[in-house]
Amino acid sequence: MAVYMGDGYTKLSTGKSKLVVKNVDCMFPRTIDLVERARGGSIITTRKEDFETVIQQAATMSTRELQSVVVEFSEKGMSFSIFNPEVGDYEQKNIAAKCEIGENIEAAFNTRFIGEILSVTKSEYVVMRVKNQESPLYFFADNVEAFIMPMRI
Fold first, then answer.
1. How far apart are CA 38 and CA 91, in angstroms?
2. What confidence tens digit (pLDDT) does each residue in 52-71 have?
3. Where does 27-148 sit in CATH, by number?
């Protein structure tokens, strides 16, 4: 077996087989930094059952390529929308939620990730915190603390 490390790639070869791997230099944010980014943001409280129902409906409208749902947090509650040219559009407005919010926030999140968090949450109510459209959506309930990074659409 031969190993060669070039500028930006690594090549492994053995006999007739070769594997070339592109080296990617990146840094992932530390978890504590993500949590800090969500602190001081708006607080949203909603019934888990209502939230879960809307996310399940939105997930049926998503495809493998488009798994995001746009969530708008406002004083009226939460609104959800998906614009998918392949399947159709989905919109659910003003889901009951107590939003302690300064100004409306609109961000896209992966429906599957939200669904997974809600599936392990045992509380009747889910509390979320979000600062702006670029900060994580931070969930906390009796037995769960989690966050989801927003998607860029």
1. 26
2. 998 888 888 776 667 788 89
3. 3.10.150.10
Residue 2 near residue 12 (C-beta atoms within 8 A): yes
Token pair in block for residue 13 = 């070869």
- Domain extents in the chain: 27-148
Contact 121, 48 (CB under 8 A): yes
> What pTM does this model have?
0.70
Burial of 26 (0-12, 13-18, 19+ CB in 10 A): exposed
Residues 6+ apart with CB under 8 A from 118: 48, 51, 52, 55, 126
Amino acid identity for residue 26 in this structure: C
